[in-house]
Each structure stands twice: as C-alpha cells, then as structure tokens.
Design a protein that fits this description.
With 322 residues, this protein is mainly alpha-helical. 77% of the residues lie in helices and 0% in strands.
C-alpha cells in the first residue's frame, strides 16, 4: 500500500494537515509533484480509453452508443445530487474530525442507496420518454452502480486532502484498464450495447476497490451530529453550481436523443467525446491539483497570521516605526 500522511490534521497543534506544513516550500513541491503524477496518470488513462474506443467501435453500431448515451445523459442530472457536494466540503475544511468524516461517509452511502432506488423507479419512465424499451434494463444496471460509487467517495476525498496523488493515479489507471478489458471482451463476444454498460460497471467497481486498498482511512460506526451542518451547507452550494453546469453542457444530449433517436445521438456522442476528451483530461489534471494547493495555501496563510512569532514581528515593526 502506498504510504500515506495522517488523514486528519493535528487540531491540538493548530497546523493544517498535509505535506505543505512540514517545511518551507513543501506545499509548492508537493503541488508540482502532484501535477506530474496526475498528468502521467491522466495520460495513461487517455491512451487506454482511446485504444479501447478504437477496438469497441469496430464491434458496435451507432445505435448501441446512442442507447447508452440516452440513459447517461438523463442520469447525468440525477447523479449531480448523489454526492451533495460533500467531497468538496470536506476538502475545503481547515480541520475535520474523524467523526465528521465518518458521518459524511454514511451520508454518501445513504444518498447512493436512495438514488439507486430513484433511478430504478425512473427506468420505465426513461424507456417511455425515448420510446426505447431496451433502456429500462440499461437504466437498472446503472442504478446498481450508484451505491458502489458512494462507498469510495470519502476515501477519494481523504487521499486528495493528503496530496496522495500517486494513489489517485493508481486508482484511475486500474479503473480505466479494468473497464477497458471488460468492455473489449464483452464487445468481442457480441454483447452489443451491454459491453459499454459492462465497461462502466467494471470501472466503477475497480475504482472503489482501489480506493479502499490505497487509503489508510476507514469509516467508523454511523453517527450524525450537528457538526455536519456547515459541511452540508457548503455542499448544497456546490450542488447548485453543478446543476447549472449540467444545464449548460448536458441538456443538448437529452434533447438530441429525444428528437433524433439513438443513431444520431450515438454519432454525436462519439464525435463529442473524441473532440473534447483531450481537453477534459487536461482540465481534470490542473483542477485536481490546483484545488488542493489553493485550499492548503490559504490554510497556511491563515495559520501564519495567527502565529505568535508573526505577532511579535508586527509589534516590533510598529515600535521601530514610532
């Protein structure tokens, strides 16, 4: 297992958690190292996805891609609420207790189960909306993935808080490779659009399993307390932002699938992914590293202002000025 920093800050000392507080310039070096590791991991992930797409596309028709895209485009809106922004809320906190992290974990699991049931109930409606009965079973398969994703949400958050980018890169590589192999094997055996579902399911399962393997943090017993209210409030703001982002970027696929059908949506989906995937990978790399770096830099600045040595220096300057 990859060595990890303590998952929680030392509240007694008042120091922010992570590598940046250990020595001067440590945060900058950690950010640069994290960017390099994440870029390498995203590059490997891109190559795997590009190769698997080239192989699977020769076995499937545009209709197969369109059927799956019909489900994922509609579920994209529902799944915006499955995390409730709790991962971002945990990352931005200066200090977070083990009880709070465990509480967020169990909330994520409960929300994942709730949305799995909600998606399952919506499966017949999605089939009727598009006029495609095959979508019912595809939707049910995606519903089963929601709790699996929720089981790894807080583990991913703790790895990000501690700047463990190597562990996150291992997760991405294992999930991409395992999903690609499963999808290719299914496509070669004639499973059609189910090969895309199998690829996504295998990737989701391997992602969660790898997160549990790489993380030293494990949840405690279920316990909800008032300490979670600030985190839930922050998470609601993140969720609202995600909803607005979906309306700007994801509504086109829903409408195209409804008015044009699976063939047109399948062609559009493949072209869009091929064109936008390189930029998405780059954005993910920069965002995942800079997000943590900015948060930890702000914590470091706040703690330095509260340091007694800084106060003495300021008083000395006032004395010298007078």
């Amino acid at each position: 297992m990859t060595p990890s920093a303590p998952p929680l800050p030392n509240a007694a000392s008042g120091s922010p958690d992570g590598e940046g507080s250990k020595h001067k310039g440590g945060l900058k070096r950690a950010a640069v190292r994290g960017w390099a590791v994440t870029m390498t991991g995203q590059g490997a992930k891109f190559v795997i996805q590009l190769g698997s797409t080239a192989v699977i596309a020769r076995q499937l028709s545009p209709t197969d891609y369109g059927l799956v895209a019909m489900v994922t485009s509609l579920l994209g809106f529902i799944t915006l609420f499955k995390d409730l922004g709790l991962s971002q809320a945990a990352i931005q906190r200066q200090t977070i207790s083990p009880a709070q992290v465990s509480g967020l974990f169990w909330i994520n699991v409960a929300v994942g189960l709730f949305f799995a049931a909600l998606i399952a109930l919506a499966a017949p409606l999605i089939g009727r909306f598009y006029g495609q009965p095959e979508l019912v079973w595809i939707t049910l398969a995606f519903a089963a993935m929601a709790p699996v994703t929720a089981l790894g949400a807080q583990h991913s958050t703790m790895l990000q808080r501690n700047l463990q980018y190597t562990s996150l890169a291992i997760r991405d590589f294992a999930a991409s490779l395992g999903g690609a192999v499963a999808g290719i094997v299914a496509a070669l055996h004639g499973y059609g659009y189910w090969s895309l579902v199998i690829m996504q399911g295998a990737s989701t399962l391997l992602s969660t399993v790898t997160l549990w393997w790489q993380s030293d943090w494990h949840p405690g017993l279920p316990r909800i307390s008032s300490d979670l209210k600030p985190l839930l409030k922050f998470g609601s703001t993140v969720t609202l932002s995600n909803v607005l982002g979906f309306l700007m970027n994801g509504l086109d696929s829903v409408l195209l699938g409804y008015f044009v059908g699976p063939v047109g949506l399948g062609v559009y989906n493949r072209a869009q992914n091929t064109l936008s995937r390189p930029m998405q990978q780059l954005i993910i790399t920069v965002h995942s590293v800079m997000k943590i770096w900015v948060v930890k830099k702000m914590r470091s600045m706040i703690m330095s202002r509260r340091s007694p040595s800084k106060k003495i220096t300021w008083k000395q300057k006032q004395h010298w000025t007078n």
